[in-house]
Every structure is written in C-alpha cells, then in structure tokens.
Specification:
Layout lengths: L7 E5 L4 E5 L3 E6 L7 E3 L10 E6 L5 E6 L6 E7 L2 E8 L8 E20 L2 H4 L4 E5 L2 E6 L2 E8 L5 E3 L2 E9 L3 E10 L10 H16 L9 H13 L1 E2 L4 E2 L22 E2 L3 H11 L2 H15 L9 E2 L10 E2 L13 E2 L10 H15 L6 H17 L18 H20 L8 H17 L1 E2 L4 E2 L26 H13 L1 E2 L2 E2 L18 E2 H13 L3 H13 L10 E3 L4 E3 L5 H15 L6
Antiparallel strand pairs: 1-2, 2-3, 3-4, 3-5, 5-9, 6-7, 7-8, 8-9, 9-14, 9-15, 10-11, 11-12, 12-15, 13-14, 16-17, 18-19, 20-21, 22-23, 24-25, 26-27, 27-28
C-alpha cells in the first residue's frame, strides 16, 4: 500500500518526475511527460498497479534520507543488522529518452538487497509482455517499451508478473539499475553510463543552485523550494506544472481529487516574481514565453490552464480501475475546469507581463498587441459572474478576487502605456474602467459591518484570496479595510492555526460535498499580509509553523490537515513552494515593517 503523501520525495529530469517513498518504492512515474499515462501507479491503488521497490531484503531495517545539497539527487540510507547500504535515486536530464537510475552502494558490512519491479502501463491497467535481450529485461505493451538493466549485471527472475533481483552488496561495492522508456516502434535507446550520469547530474544541479540570490535566514528552505519549482518545469517549453501528481485528495476518502499536471495562468505572476527574485532570469523568460504562446489567439478563448506545451484540450475523465489514494475516488485524468470562465486570469496575465518588463525582459511588440486585445475583451466582460480563482463547480458568482484582478489588468495596462507611450494605445478607457471596478468592489464586495471584503458580492462568506488585495496594489496595507480583512480571514477561516481557502457552510459555494484541509499557499499569504500590516513577529511565527509541516526532505503538498497532521492534495505543489519563497523574501526584507 502507498505511504502517506508526506512520505514521498521527488526526482525528475525536467520533463517528468517520479515519487519515491521512504520504503524505497517508486509509486508514481509518468513517461515520457508529466501528463503521460503512469507506468507506476501504486500511489493511487496498490502494488499491482505498478511500483518499483529497491531496499534491503531483511525486514529489520531503519532508513534515513536526504537530497544532496543543491540537487534533486536523493540518497536513502538503510541500516540493517548486517550492515548499511545507500540507494541513490535520480533522473538525469535526458538527451533523447527518459532514464531512471537507482544505484545501490555498500556503506558497511554486507547487506542482501532486493529489487521488485512491477511495470503496469496506462495508469496501472496494462501488464506488459516481458522478454530478455542483450542483458536487458524488456517490457512492451502497445506504444510503450521499457528497458531495464543493471551494471554490473545481477541475476533477475520473473514471478507473478513481477521482475525480481536478489543480490548482496558489501562495503565499497555498487550496483546500478537503469530503466529507460522509449516508443515501442523505435530502436533500442542509447545506453547511458549510470555513474557518469550521476556525476553530471550533481554538477548540473550544483551549478544551477549556485545562482540563487537569496542569502537570508531560511536559505535552505528557499533553495529547496526553487529546486522543486525547477523540477516541476517542462524544459522543452518552459511551462511549469502545478504538481507532479493527479487525484491526491484534499479530503481523505472524499471526491475533491483533481489532475494538477498542467500549467495554470493563475500561478504565472507569482511564479515569475519568485524566479526573478531568486536569480533565475532564464527560467523566468522561458515561463513568460510559454505564457505568450499559450494565450495567443482570441481573448474570448483564453483558458485558465494549458498543457505543458500550451495544449488546450485537457478533457477530464475518470479511471475506474484505480481505487484512489486511501479509497479517495474518483481518480481523474484531465481537468474540466479548463472550460470555466475565470476573469481573474486576464489580470494575472497582464500582471505577469508587467513584472517581466519591470525586470528588464524585452518587451515584444506582439506581447503588447496581445495585451491590448485582452483589455478590449475584458472591458466588455468584467461585469459578468464567473467561477473564480478556486474553480468552483457551483453556480457562477461575482467573486471579489475576480473583480480585483480585472482592476489589476486595467492598472497594469495604464501604467505600461504611461511608461512606454511608444507602444501605442489610448489609456483613457482603461483608466475609466480601473476607477469603475475599484468603486464597485469597494461598494458591493465589502461588508462594512464586519470591516472585511467578502468572497462575492453581497455575501457574508470570506475568501483567503482577498489577502492579496494589498499585494496587487488595489489598496495599501495601511487601509483599515485591508487590516479588517486580514483579521477576519485569520479569525473565520482559521484551521488549526493555518487558513482555509474560503468559508464552508450551507451555501455550498463550490458545489462539492465534504471539506478540505488548510490551504498552504493561503497560509503563506496570511503571513505576508500580517507582515505588511505591521505585525512582523506574528508573521514570522506563522512562517516558522508553515516550515515545520514540510516533510523530511523539505517538500509541501497543496494542503495540511491539522487534526491528523498529514499533508493533503497533489504533491509536491508548486503554488505552496511559490508561497514559501515569496514569504521568505518578504520577511527578509530590511525595509519591511518590524
């Protein structure tokens, strides 16, 4: 059975990723891309749905693990009665085809080790045909082929549709396993030297990490988050997936299970800011360019998310043969929210391009033309109700955050023309729109009796997204309405000291049964808002509590359950790590409030 969500570590090659459990089992791997069908899907079922466990054969073992500093290379140490072994897991940045490398090294004594691998293509549903060839075990089914070899070669045998290797390593001995995927109609992929690949991977990651600008008190946490964001990047396009997994539940046993292996526009401005602040301008440019390619076209057709290369069709369907993580069903592939109307994305796109220009990225003429076209569309549409930032599956409403982001779109368009009038355009209508939106939000989205902005017009429900009002410049942090909103969100959306996304009551705003945990990104937003409103000590205290819920290798999922003290939701979650980095930079800024 799969472990707890926080039991996993991430390894990847900047095109896909694997989740490795504390027990040495890889329970999730999609090949060749993040959004491809999984060949190891035990995470959402059991071992029969595909996994690869590599660990000491004896049961009396204790393990400890850590990433090599500044890398995405994972070392797990196993202590047994007869000695200690180390298993190193990584995926080298690929030349053509993806490779997964696992190296067993004897540290002391002499330890029997077992490799147990069940390949199951198409999300655990297809058992491949296995054969031997030239020192390899080859698994083939339909379009997929996987080659498995060891170096030096160790005996393997098959039993019950599983491939085993039993061997012993003594101090100083090493055995490397290499699993390589390729399309089944193509020739055998080129072999890699696993030990040379390890050295190159470590060197590549260390060189990348050396660029990190952050030198504050939380450098280790910030760097690990930046490495995680890099690990969730699809290098060929520059797109960043929201998470490496699908259908990890927001409530154990519930139906709030979504596919997050796509790129969301809502993450764009926050991610761009993090990459630029961290010193990673090249990645920021690639993300900006991905954004421009994805949103090109009719602004009426703008989507809230896209595929890794900007694909638009992300059809959602259910996978009935997988029971779901801890019986949390259904398991979903694709995401129907792609068809929703979320007006906030226009503000997020214009804010992202504003940020990129402010940090010296070249302003392409076609980028401004795209923004002008978006503003023309938004001028006529911003008054409409929508599904909002949180992709509710209930009725459309006039969400306050959506209107605030419409204000952001108009504001950034006006400021861009004020600074660069040569770009062309009339800022007059956008100024008028900016003023109108601001006036309307303050009139209809603000509860004067409770001194707080609400989730949608005329409601009493609250929404943690209103914590972003000072960050985007809609109101200054000193405004009493901002302070009141921070206090109300902190009080009414509290969940074990952290923050829920929005109010859960009989109104059933999101149209779904059940509840969810504390949303980690929103909890980081609260820390930012506390700091901005002059409560630095409280902000730092909350930030330290958030850091404490990371797992043993520094990773965060989407949510946290304070009752069971478990991580919830897809993992690792880019939005959570973006929040961590943003808050660390804010709290480390010398000019910020005490």
């Amino acid at each position: 059975m799969p472990g707890h969500i926080e039991d996993y570590a991430l390894i990847g090659d900047l095109q896909t990723a694997a989740l490795v459990g504390r027990d040495g089992s890889i329970d999730w791997l999609c090949l060749p891309r993040f959004d491809s069908a999984a060949c190891f899907a035990a995470l959402l079922g059991d071992e029969d749905n595909g996994h690869w466990r590599l660990a000491p054969a004896a049961g009396d073992t204790r393990s400890r693990r850590a990433y090599r500093e500044g890398t995405l290379v994972l070392d797990t140490f196993w202590d047994t009665e007869s000695g200690t072994v180390k298993v190193t897991d990584f995926m080298p940045q690929r030349d053509r085809m993806p490779d997964l490398v696992r190296i067993v090294e004897g540290v002391s004594g002499s330890v029997p080790v077992r490799s147990e691998i069940r390949l199951r293509f198409d999300y655990g549903s297809v058992v491949p045909w296995m054969r031997r060839s030239d020192g390899h075990r080859i698994a083939i089914a339909g379009p997929d082929a996987v080659w498995l070899r060891s170096e030096p070669e160790v005996p393997t045998y098959g039993k019950d549709f599983c491939t085993y290797s039993d061997f012993t390593v003594s101090q100083g001995e090493r055995v490397a396993f290499v699993l390589t995927w390729h399309p089944s109609h193509q020739k055998r992929p080129r072999r890699i030297d696993p030990y040379a690949a390890l050295a190159q991977s470590v060197a590549d990651w260390e060189a990348w990490s050396a660029k990190c600008r952050y030198q504050g008190p939380w450098r280790d946490a910030v760097l690990r988050s930046l490495i995680t964001l890099k690990g969730l990047t699809y290098a060929p396009s520059g797109g960043i997936v929201a998470a490496a997994s699908t259908s990890l539940p927001e409530e154990i046993g519930g139906v709030r299970n979504w596919d997050y292996r796509f790129s969301w526009l809502r993450d764009a401005s926050l991610t761009l800011g993090v990459l630029v602040a961290g010193g990673y301008l090249e990645e920021a440019v690639a993300w900006r360019d991905w954004l421009l390619r994805a949103v090109a076209g009719d602004p009426a057709d703008l989507q809230i998310m896209y595929g890794l290369a900007g694909e638009r069709r992300l059809t959602e369907y259910e996978v009935p043969w997988l029971p779901g993580y801890e019986a949390s069903s259904p398991v979903r592939i694709g995401n129907a929210a792609v068809d929703q109307l979320q007006l906030d994305v226009y503000g997020e796109v214009l804010d992202s391009l504003w940020i990129s220009r402010e940090h010296g990225m070249a302003q392409e003429e076609h980028a401004w033309n795209i923004q002008r076209t978006m503003m023309e569309f938004l001028e006529s549409q911003w008054r409409e109700p929508d599904e909002g930032l949180w992709e509710v599956r209930g009725e459309r409403r006039h969400f306050v955050h959506s209107k605030v982001m419409a204000w952001v779109a108009a504001d950034r368009a006006v400021r861009t023309l004020e600074e660069c009038p040569r770009l062309g355009g009339d800022p007059g209508p956008w100024r008028a729109m900016r003023e109108t939106v601001h006036r309307e939000v303050c009139r209809h989205g603000y509860d004067a009796d409770r001194n707080t902005f609400t989730q949608f017009y005329g409601s009493r429900e609250l929404d943690a997204a209103t914590l972003l009002i000072p960050r985007v410049g809609f109101l200054p942090p000193t405004d009493p309405r901002v302070v009141g909103t921070v206090d109300a969100v902190r009080r009414e959306l509290d969940h074990g000291g952290f923050v829920r996304r929005y109010t859960f009551d009989d109104s059933n705003v999101d149209g779904l049964p059940g509840r969810e945990g504390a949303f980690l990104a929103c909890s980081f937003w609260l820390a930012d808002a506390l700091y901005a409103t002059g409560r630095g000590k409280e902000a730092r205290g909350l930030f330290e509590e958030l850091l404490a819920v990371r797992n043993d290798v520094g990773l965060l999922s989407e949510e946290w359950d304070p009752a069971t003290r478990r991580q919830l939701g897809n993992f690792p979650q880019a939005f959570s790590h973006v929040g961590l980095v943003n808050t660390a930079f804010a709290l480390s800024h010398g000019d910020a409030p005490p």
